Structure formats: structure tokens, C-alpha cells
Amino acid sequence: xxxxxxxxxxxxxxxxxxxxxxxxxxxxxxxxxxxxxxxxxxxxxxxxxxxxxxxxxxxxxxxxxxxxxxxxxxxxxxxxxxxxxxxxxxxxxxxxxxxxxxxxxxxxxxxxx
Amino acid sequence: xxxxxxxxxxxxxxxxxxxxxxxxxxxxxxxxxxxxxxxxxxxxxxxxxxxxxxxxxxxxxxxxxxxxxxxxxxxxxxxxxxxxxxxxxxxxxxxxxxxxxxxxxxxxxxxxxxxxxxxxxxxxxxxxxxxxxxxxxxxxxxxxxxxxxxxxxxxxxxxxxxxxxxxxxxxxxxxxxxxxxxxxxxxxxxxxxxxxxxxxxxxxxxxxxxxxxxxxxxxxxxxxxxxxxxxxxxxxxxxxxxxxxxxxxxxxxxxxxxxxxxxxxxxxxxxxxxxxxxxxxxxxxxxxxxxxxxxxxxxxxxxxxxxxxxxxxxxxxxxxxxxxxxxxxxxxxxxxxxxxxxxxxxxxxxxxxxxxxxxxxxxxxxxxxxxxxxxxxxxxxxxxxxxxxxxxxxxxxxxxxxxxxxxxxxxxxxxxxxxxxxxxxxxxxxxxxxxxxxxxxxxxxxxxxxxxxxxxxxxxxxxxxxxxxxxxxxxxxxxxxxxxxxxxxxxxxxxxxxxxxxxxxxxxxxxxxxxxxxxxxxxxxxxxxxxxxxxxxxxxxxxxxxxxxxxxxxxxxxxxxxxxxxxxxxxxxxxxxxxxxxxxxxxxxxxxxxxxxxxxxxxxxxxxxxxxxxxxxxxxxxxxxxxxxxxxxxxxxxxxxxxxxxxxxxxxxxxxxxxxxxxxxxxxxxxxxxxxxxxxxxxxxxxxxxxxxxxxxxxxxxxxxxxxxxxxxxxxxxxxxxxxxxxxxxxxxxxxxxxxxxxxxxxxxxxxxxxxxxxxxxxxxxxxxxxxxxxxxxxxxxxxxxxxxxxxxxxxxxxxxxxxxxxxxxxxxxxxxxxxxxxxxxxxxxxxxxxxxxxxxxxxxxxxxxxxxxxxxxxxxxxxxxxxxxxxxxxxxxxxxxxxxxxxxxxxxxxxxxxxxxxxxxxxxxxxxxxxxxxxxxxxxxxxxxxxxxxxxxxxxxxxxxxxxxxxxxxxxxxxxxxxxxxxxxxxxxxxxxxxxxxxxxxxxxxxxxxxxxxxxxxxxxxxxxxxxxxxxxxxxxxxxxxxxxxxxxxxxxxxxxxxxxxxxxxxxxxxxxxxxxxxxxxxxxxxxxxxxxxxxxxxxxxxxxxxxxxxxxxxxxxxxxxxxxxxxxxxxxxxxxxxxxxxxxxxxxxxxxxxxxxxxxxxx
Lengths: 113, 1149
Known about the structure:
A: four-stranded antiparallel beta sheet; Helicase-assoc_dom (chain B); hydrolase (chain B); helicase (chain B); RNA binding (chain B)
């Protein structure tokens, strides 16, 4: 019964879970594509093509927390950073990213209120 | 210089230039390949990306200075606070946000093979172009990743927000610990989609989840497979009657309740499943109640089996108690608040039974909504009425109002509408306009429409009930139950807060029954009992149902099954019963199939059986359309509705063969719902397979291997193409809903059917021929071999009158005892007032959809054939009966799907009980139809022919069935020749019996005093020793214990009718010569018949083909019929046939 259970990826920030089929930088059947970080990868369930992959998440390059690629949880800028680390070191990120994050914060605030 | 020149020539829009880049980035083995959909998407993306870049570049030159300034600032800040240097690049580049890189040809070349490089350099894209393209590709890949991940995140969010989500662990734990668990949750809690997934991810394998409706099986399998990201791939599937996606890998299967029951029939312990989920148990369908009963015993036998019942929060205790207090997990539903407004209909607006519904209360609500809610606040209205007639009344009135206000689109919804019309309720109304959907209770559970804000509940429902006494279904109007009332109300709160108007008082509501009457209490139980018998569940009376059906109902079914020959007198399955229990159709239809397999009539019988098992393809709404009526005319057969259906199906198959997808138009012109024809062709195929698997049908020579390799390859390529079309369709399915037009409501109008045709034609022209792919046609082609089908159809087309007569007989025997006799005064009545009688129900009429409703003359006894004898006796050789499929009472009792048969011949061949007087000129069939023949001579001749035909028919049928139950022996059970001979004789009997007789339905008084009753033997036979057994070889002839007279066969009792005319006629002998042997002597009618039974025509004697034994060889001596007879007078043992015994005895007188 247990043997058929799949490896599951869980985002430590938002709790999103999904089974993954590959962890690493070179997902199978992707030919010329190389990932720039070690990722949790699954087959893209929304593509009719069986060989398309989907990156679910990876580990934060600073704190090694396992995070999903959702913009609320992490950010990739040459490396993967979880949102907690991004906020901690916001000043080191280029202003384009800073303004973008500030805007997003405002928007989500507006949505809540 | 050189590079400049090349750049001039470079044109991003040129297909040639793009093709050159394709060779770099999208090669045959690349992640994206030239020609794939992604490849097209990329270039579309590329254009957008370039435009975006140009725009940004233009603004960028202004902002460049500011950017530099920022960077300086950034550095300063960094120096002050940061302890950790993240090592981020100084200059921002969107490229750094992408976590993918691509190795393409240019990189490969740069790494190694330089010989290509120089060649490519001379012409083709330069470094700049390649890097532009690469950047766009990276962004494209990133964009796709974001999109897909966004979908995934949304999906997970939705799953998490379902009320049932927080119970996930609890559910899994309960199922682990208890054999049976009840999960109760209201609409929208997510139980149907989530519970199976929770169990799958907890490691349970082989889960079956039953649904009351086929459509739910398909949509749930699709949804669950999607939600679980297809991670289980083919592991989530569905199985319904004609379609399955099940494979060996399937771990979660959605299937119908009926199908699971069929599986239990094959695999009693359901070893193939570890978990069984029964969903929607509160709906209390017949199959569901039965399934629960079967599973209840199974749970005790299989402790490893897990059973989960899922229900709305209705009557939960009932289910829990039934399974020895199984634990219940109650999950809150997710409904928005709904305001309930009681608006009882004032007495002056209440319609009496015969009147049409008064639309005023309904119109007031529409008006009220228009006054109270601004049109820009969206929200549709769903109105529940009891039936189709009510819907069209209210629809008409609402349409007038809608046309006037331009604020409503009125749409009817009920199951007799075409699927296209039903589908309209899902389309979107234009802004400022609301849909007003007027529906039967179909929208209560089966059809879920989003966007409904207002519900109007009439509180009424029309429900089928079964009258076991009249053996009749009845469609009656009832108040709904409180549970239904709540369900209807809930339909207003699915997408937002809503309002429910109840057209009854709150006190009425309180007086409603708490729950609807379960189906098992309302319907005929024939099929259920048959299935129980075949599953070896013992006495149906003692089976522990969750809510046992009335004993009378079970008894009626058992009696009926005995009448049908499916059960023997001890209530055990007969061989035909065993077979019938495996056919997923009504007993009568199943019988037809079995009978048809015997004669060379398999093809038409398959079609008719299939046609009678699905809804009629003839749309009611098109009936009044003169164009449709004219186009339908050539399909009509005045032999009966089954023949019309047969013609229709055959014509359709022909059109399909010639024009393929053009059949859609052909159907529309005739007011036919093509979907029904597709169902028929599928069902027909299933019947054929079933007959084959029971060896009732020779498997034809393997048709697939016929034809040369080329043909096979062609068929293979075509199948591939069709599969692709099917997949394409599945992907775009449900993507977009149409926006309705204001005038849309008009075409549902019943009175102006021609509008429908007009609008649909217009619509069709709008769609291009290419986009207008007919998925049904694709599926049809995948499933059926059209040329095979055409061949089969040709067999049943241009049927000779002989075949037609035989087919009618088969249908009649199948449908028996569902027979009706025309009223004797029909000749004097108007066409529309023709009255018929069945055994148990007087005064029934023909349903307006039947061919006999429009053409009743064919049922009348022609005047020239009538000879008036006295006051009310009409003698003719042309009396007819109707065999019918359904007797349904709505406002009147209606017969539908009728076929006409010659009365006397049919009765003689199918009746279960035939009683005669002494000279056999008076016969009573099944205790309700009296036949009087003028010539006793003819009467006994007919009777004996019928007896011999029936005997032979029965023998062949049993041989055929016996052969199917045993292993197929080399010798065919029934030789073709024997079969042909019998069918020949039957046809002759049916067509060429020209005997004048009267046909009368007995009055109640007459039936009471029908029989002479048991008589002392001495009196009956006047002192003659009743050596009766010797008179009827093979048959055990003895006095009938109740009726009196002599029981000659199981269905024929001689001289039991209280026939005051002459009590002694049985002893009267008249001279008679046997046509088959040279016998000529005075015989009583009984003796004569008995002689005929033993004296076969010379041709047939060889058929029985046994060695003639010793004894007197003579024309009438057939060894098998001879027996040892001890003559007391000569005191000798003689081997004689019964006729010879008779002759011998006479010598001594």
C-alpha cells in the first residue's frame, strides 16, 4: 500500500502540497533545458503535452527552507530566496524588485480591507 | 559592413527568417518543436514581447539616469546595514529572474562543431537576432511556468477552502478504523470530489465510487483526475453503460449503481475493490437501496472491505442504523444565506384539476424582481413546476411579459427537450437581462445551474408510481417533501446570497412529508427481483432492505416473472430467467432478444429492442410542425411504433453511411433527437455482444481480419485521426459558454415549432463547417463499423411480409401479457376517441405519439370481413390486438409503443392460459378474452396446429438456451433447417388462417362463472375408465383441479368452460380423416387433437430421426410415441401409439 505513495513536495510557507517526480537541475525529457537551481519538478498537468514539466519549488539559497515558486512565497533573482529572507535583505535587491514588492503589498492590503 | 548588410535583410516578420531561427531553437529533439502548438504560441508571444521591449526602450532612455542614481543609493544602503552579502548583480536585468537556461544549436556549435558555424555565418540570423530570440524564449518558458503554477496554486487554494478539507485526516482515520462510515454533507461541501482523493493519497487502492447518474461519473472522473494533476494518470477512470476509461491501472473508478450491481453478479465478493463509496445515498434510488442491502451482507463477509456512504444531511440516522450504528461524520455545506418568502397562491388563482395553471402568481414574482432589483445586479431565476404541460403554460405567459419588458430570457428545462435545448440553460444572458429557467425537478439534483439567485418553488412534483393491480405506471402530481423543498431552495444560494419564493404557506411546508418516497416503494420490482434471484439472495420477502418495499409489490413481481417464464412454479430461475437477469433491460425486451436469436431475425430484433429501451427519438415539440410531419411520413409504419422506430434507425444508418456528419441535419429536419439514435446503436451493440457471449448468436467470421492489408491500414489511420479529433474536442470542451440573445426564449415555444427549425438552421450556417465538428459522429465512427452496420440494416430493410409477420409475433410474445383489445364499439367512434382494454385496466387510449393515434383505421375490423350474427357478435377473420410496451396513466391511461397483431393466431401462440368448451369452438384466453368460432371443425384444427407449433417452438427454444448454458457442443443445438421449418409453419399459421370468429372481452360477471369446476370423474367421463394419460403421450393429462375439464398442456385446459349448450358434446364423435395417415374414423374433438399431436406429417418424422422400434410399422407409428399398452381384454402387452391403442380398444366393443 505504502510503496505506491508518491514523493510529495510541501511549501513550508504556504503549505501547498503536490507530488513531484524529479528533484534536480535536469528534469527528464526536457532536452536542451537546464534549471539554474535544484528544483522539485513534476509533469505539467495543465499541458496536453505529456513531456512538459512544471517547477513546483526549491530551497531558499539563504535559509534552505523549502518553498514553492509562487510569488507570495519566494523569488528568484539569480538564486532562490524565500520571502522571509527577501524581506530581511530587501535593501540588497534592485529597486525594480523593491517597488514591485511594495506595490504588491499595497494591492493585497487593498483587497483585504 | 557585412553584418550591416545582413541586418538590413533581416526581417522578424518574414517566415523565412523565422524558419532559420526555428532551426536553431526548435529542432526535432528540442523541448519545443517546430510545428507544435507551443511553437505557434511562442511566436505569438515573441511579437508581444518585442512590442513590449520597444515601448520600454523608449521610456527607458528617459529613466536611465534615475536608474543610475538609484544604484548609487543602493550601494550606500548596502554598506550600512547588510551583514550578509547576497552577491546579487549590480545591474538589474529581468533575465536574472528566470531560473531556466536553454542549450540550443548555437551554443552547441560554439562549444564544438565549428565547421557548421562558418556556413551559417554567411547567411541567416546574426548574434543579435539569436540572443533576442533566446531572451524571448526564456521569458516564454518562464511565462508558461508561471501560468501553470498559478493554476495549480488556485486549485490547491480552492481545495483548501472546501468545507470538507479540515476533515481530511478525520475521514481517513475513520475509514481505517471502521468497516462502514457515513459522510454527510450538503451541496458544495466537496465530498464527492475530495473524499476519494483523500483515500487515494492515504494509500487506499482500488476504490469504487458509485453515482446515481452516468453524467456524474464522467464529470467526476474528469474533475478528480484534474485535481489530482493527472498524477494518477489512467488511475482515475469511469465506467458507464457504453463507455469506460478503466484500465488495469485504474485505482479509482466512478461508476453507476446499476453497474456495480452487475459487477456483484459476476464477482460476488467484489474482490476487485478495497473501498466502495456509495454517493448520494439520500436520493434513495431503487438500485442504491438494493446495493446497500447487498453491501450490508458483503461487509460481514469481507472484513477488509471499507464502505463509505455519502449523503446530504438528510435522514442520516437511517443509514447509520442500517449498518449497525456506523460512525457519522457531518460536514457543513457551503451555501450563501437564502431568504425564504412564502407566497401561497390565493384560492381564486388555484387551478382545479382539469384547468390550466394560472400564471398570475408567477408573473407577479417576475414583476417583483424587476421592481426590487436593479437589472445590473446579475442573478437568474429558476422556477420549479411539476411537469411539461405546466411548464409550457407558464412559459407562454412569461414569454409575453419578457417580450414586453426586454429583461428576461425564458427557457424551459425538462428531459423530453432536445439536448441542445437543454444545454441552453447554461448559456449566459446579455447584461441587464435575466434568465428565467422553468424546470421540472430535473434541476433539483441532476442539473446544476450556476448563477441562480432567485428560486420559485411551486411545491409540486409529478412522480411515477406503480399500480400493481392494473400493472400500470401512473404519473401523478404530489406535494414535494420538506427535503426536496430545501434542496430547491438551496439552488438559489450556490454563487451568492439568494431568495426563494415558495408558492405555498409555511403551514403547508410543515405538513409536507419529511422525505420523498423512496423509489423502491413506487416502481415495479420485476427487474429487481430477477436480479436478486440470479444473485442467489434467497427469498426476496426476507431480504433486509433499508426500507422494505410492500410485500404485495414483491408478490406482484414474482407472479409476473412466473407468467413471463423467468421463474418456475417454485420461484426458482428458469434457464431463460437466468439469461434475462443478465440483460440490462426490461424483462419484456430481454425476452424479445432471446426469441429473436432463435429465428433469422436477430438484426431487426436487436434494433427494436434497443429502440424500445431508450427515450423516443421523436421530439414532442416537432410533432405539430407540418414540415417535420411530412419529412417523417416515409418512416411511419402502420404495423406499429416498433416498426416506425426500426425504419427510422435503418434510414439513419443509411444516411450515416452516405453522408456521415450530414445525419445531424437529416435528423433535425425530421424532428429527431440524434443523441437517442446514438444511444440505440450503442445499446444494439451491447445486446449483440451479450447474445454472443451467451452463445445465442453465432460469432460472425472475424470481419476485422477480412480485407487486405491496405484496407486495414487505411482504417487504422482513420482511427488515429478520429482519436485525435476526440482528444482535441475533450480539450476545448466547456471552454466557453455562448451568450444568449433576447429572442432566444421564443424558439422553445411549443405552438410554433417551425421557428425552431428556422433558428437552428441559422445558427448552423454561422458556424464554419470546420469548427462544427460533431463529436458524436467521431465517437460513433470510433465505436462502430459503418459498413457492418449497413449490412445489418439491409437485412432488416425491405422486410418481406413473412418476416414482418414473424417479427410481430416475436414482439408480441416478448411483450405478452401486455395486450390490449379494441373496444367493440370503436367503429362508431371518432378517430380520437378509440378505446381499448387491457386485462386489468378498462378504457385506455393510445398515446398521441403512437402511429395508431394518427391512423386508427388499421385497427378496425373491416366491414367486408364482418358478418353480423345477432346483436353484439361481430364475426371476422380480421380481429386484431395491440401488444404494447408501456401503460402509463397521466391525465388518462395511455398505451405507448404498440404493435398490432392478428388476434386469434397471436393468442393461440402466446397465451398462458387457454380454456375451451367441449367442441373447442369457444375459447377463453387468459381468463379475459373470449373467442367464438363458427365452425367447431376449424376450431379444433386450429387448436391442434397451435399446440403443435407451440410445442415445437418451446422445444427449439429450450434447446437453444440449453446449448448456451452448456459448453458449446460441436453440433448446433438447433439446426438451421429445423428452425426454418418452424418459422415457415408459424408464418403460414399467422398469415393464412382465414377463420371467422368473434372476439369479446368478458365481463366481471362472466369471469366469475367461467369454469365448471372440479367434477367427479365418473360423471365427466360417463363411466369410461379415464385412461387419459395414454391419450396424450408426453403430456400428463389429468383433470384440472380448479377449472375442471382436462388439463392437456400447461397452458391448455379442455372442456372446462361452463358451457351450458351441451354437456355431452365431448362424447360426440364425428367422422374424421387424418391428413397425415390413412386413419378415418369417428372421434371426439379431444381424441382428434390427441391423434394429431402424435401423428406428424411424413416430412417431419425424419426430423425427429430416431430408430423405429419394433412394433407395427405404419404411417402413423413413430417409435418415440409408442408405448407399452396392456390390453385387459386380450390380456396382452402391446407396443402401440396412442391412436393405435384407441383403435385397438374399439375392436373390443
